[in-house]
Design goal:
The chain has one domain (3-71). The protein is 75% helix and 0% strand. The protein is built from two helices and no strands. The N and C termini lie close together (7 Å).
Length: 72
């Protein structure tokens, strides 16, 4: 994996993690993150689940980028 692909995968993963984590945190204090506001229409439980999934997906992408950089 070349440097450009590694960095794009790492930045995408980090951005998804931040988006999900900040979305959950803001939802706990009663605010909304505008890009994720449409998730609140599904109800609070599904909204937390999907935002958590976005955060976990970001961690997985960042870890996958780390593995590709070190193994290939």
């Amino acid at each position: 994996m070349n440097q450009t692909k590694y960095l794009s995968l790492l930045i995408t993963g980090f951005a998804l993690f931040l988006l999900g984590f900040i979305g959950i945190f803001l939802n706990l204090i009663g605010a909304q993150l505008v890009p994720l506001a449409w998730l609140d229409s599904f109800g609070p439980g599904i909204s937390y689940l999907l935002k958590g999934f976005v955060a976990v997906l970001g961690i997985c992408l960042a870890y996958l980028a780390y593995l590709y950089k070190n193994n290939f």
